[in-house]
Write a structure and sequence with these properties.
Blueprint: H1 2-12, H2 14-18, H3 28-48, H4 52-58, H5 68-72, H6 75-90, H7 96-118, H8 128-135, H9 139-142, H10 147-153, E1 154-155, E2 158-159, H11 169-190, H12 194-199
Helix pairs in contact: 1-3, 1-7, 3-6, 3-11, 6-7
Length: about 200
């Protein structure tokens, strides 16, 4: 799933990164990797802090083709833009104005495309369960949780809790929050990270 995300960022970054004279060609892959990491890390941090409802809300079908302004106003997206902007400035020496422009253009495009792809039944490259699973130590699949089914019930900022006896949302959120935290802790203890995995996708 992370490799698919890396390829999506690369596709969306043709103009903002790859063909951008501000970014040296030899740094293209590294910048794309940093953008991918910013998205993955931002989503994982949200999950680890108990923000699964916010993720589900953002990826809801009602948000397909949502405008860039809406995404820029989303705190999750704003946080990801900030992470990537700081990397461009501090790691790649891009000026603050240029970095803000690149991040403010690329990240919303990536998130918008990601939302559309996860909601497209004909697209097998992304689904919300696999995406969240890759960021939460496979908590959904291990718990037999169908996040696509949950997402279909998620509308207007809340779950349609119809009392059908299925696993309670609090249980699901707790499992995914714990899984995301565990993955972060393992990465810190063992020296591995999402970024190490993403760098393995360089061609």
């Amino acid at each position: 799933m992370l490799e698919n995300l890396f390829n999506l960022v690369k596709e969306q970054g043709i103009d903002t990164v790859i063909n951008n004279p501000v970014i040296p060609n030899e740094k293209n892959d590294e910048v794309i990797a940093d953008a991918t990491h910013s998205v993955a890390d931002g989503l994982q941090s949200e999950l680890a802090s108990g923000g699964l409802p916010n993720i589900l809300s953002m990826f809801g079908k009602n948000n397909n083709n949502r405008g860039i302004t809406d995404l820029l106003n989303n705190p999750i997206v704003s946080n990801i833009i900030s992470k990537f902007t700081n990397k461009l400035i501090n790691k790649h020496g891009v000026s603050e104005d240029e970095a803000s422009g690149i991040a403010g253009s690329l990240i919303p495009d990536v998130i918008s495309s990601l939302i559309n792809k996860t909601n497209d039944p004909d697209n097998n490259s992304f689904d919300l369960g696999s995406l969240i699973g890759s960021l939460s130590n496979n908590a959904p699949s291990e718990g037999g949780i169908n996040l696509q089914d949950i997402l279909s019930k998620f509308s207007n900022g809340g779950l349609d809790m119809n009392g059908d006896g299925k696993l309670g949302f609090d249980d699901i959120m707790s499992k995914i929050t714990g899984g995301a935290k565990k993955q972060q802790e393992v990465a810190q203890q063992e020296g591995g990270s999402l970024m190490d995995t993403i760098k393995g996708f360089f061609k």
